[in-house]
Amino acid sequence: MNISYWDLGKAGDLAEFYSQQIVGLPCCYPVSPDDFVRSMQRDVYDAPLANLHSEKLLVGEEDGKISGFVHLAIEEKKDENQSERNGIIRFMAYDPGRRVLGQALLAETESHFKEKEVQKIKAFPKNYMYRFCSPDGGYSEQHGHISALLWINDYTISSRTVYMFLADFQVSEPVLPEESVKIKVNPVAGEGELPNIMMCAYSPRAIREDGLFGECYSFSLGHLQRSERAQDQLYINWLGVHKKFQNRGWGRYLLIRTLWEAQKIGYKHSLLSTGEKNHRALLFYTNYGYRVLHSSYTFVKSLSE
Predict the structure, then answer these.
(1) Are 273 and 126 in contact (CB under 8 A)?
(2) What is the β-pairing status of strands 212-220 and 233-241?
(3) DSSP assignment, residue 48?
């Protein structure tokens, strides 16, 4: 067994191993070496990942073959009131059954962060997961050997994300709850075969100067993954309504209007996520046909104890 540090420039050599690890995970598809390198450095909005530096790949090899890796980074957050410095595990994978290798990778990860004088490790946080694997963050519960290894090593769950799926949707154009409201639908070309859909609702009675009070931002899953199987799936990244306008049907309208616009241009399925404890959202989406697909976890561990 050999464990070594790689620079991100060699990340493409891990694409095949990564693709083998995600076989069978819902809405996850193999990626090419070029896409693996390019897409791991951008969020869903194609913006560079903020607050990260000192990224490294810790790679484990056995008999000359890659058997596992950990993607490490340092997170620096500073504002007027406080500063925060954390070790980040952006991704971790190793073959099931190779616990000795997994433990060695994790032990080296913690040693690395201690040398960098990091006090806390965040594993698979929302903002830094690979967008082509888990765009809303967290590590799939279906990778039980990874979660179990972290639990055994005193990591605790800091958040749980529930992914929901709506298959073969067919909706009718929804009725606008209030005629004075203006809806702006903006199809935005992305990397998928179908455009991303950005929708905003404006009212002269809204608190904001521009009148904005509701939003629904959605992406082609093909924007995040190049697979042909991803192209007709709409990933809803954000749906929000200002509290002054809640409980008046605007959340339903923005959701159904988004799906209606999407089906007109060729989308067939929809994916979204919400927090485990966001019971109102879980109930809301279930009412409109979404079903729980799987869950993912974000972990944390203090190194100061």
Answers:
(1) no
(2) antiparallel
(3) B
Q: Which CATH superfamily is domain 2-160+296-302 in?
A: Gcn5-related N-acetyltransferase (GNAT) (3.40.630.30)
> Under 8 Å CB-to-CB from 67, ≥6 apart: which residues?
1, 60, 61, 94, 95, 98, 101
* H-run or E-run covering 186: strand 182-188
- Does this model's pTM top 0.70? My answer is yes
Q: Whole-angstrom Cα distance, residue 125 to residue 45?
A: 17
Provide φ and ψ at 106, rounded to 5°.
-70, -40
Sketch the domain layout of the chain as residue ranges.
2-160+296-302, 182-267
CA distances from 87 to 242, 272, 275 (A): 34, 28, 23
> Check: CATH 3.40.630.30 for 182-267?
yes
Side chain identity, residue 264: K
Where residue 43 falls among pLDDT bands split at 50, 70, 90?
confident
Of 172, 258, 275, 251, the closest CA to residue 220 belongs to 258
Partners of 216 in the β-ladder = 199, 239
Q: At what angle do helices 99-115 and 144-152 cross, to 10 degrees?
A: 50
182 and 202 in contact (C-beta within 8 Å)?
yes
Query: How is residue 21 written in tokens?
Result: 């690890």
Contact 242, 254 (CB under 8 A): no
Q: What is the pLDDT of residues 169-206, one digit of tens each?
A: 999 999 999 989 999 999 999 999 999 999 999 998 88
Residue type, 162: V
Residue 105's Cα: distance from chain center in Å? Answer: 23
Tokens of 101: 């290798």
Q: Are 233 and 263 in contact (CB under 8 A)?
A: no
**Confidence grade of residue 29 (pLDDT, cut at 50, 70, 90):** very high
How many alpha carbons lie under 13 Å from residue 54 in its C-beta half-sphere? 14
From 237, 240, 196, 184, select the one nearest 214 (Cα to Cα). Answer: 240
Which pair of structure tokens corresponds to residue 18? 């990564």
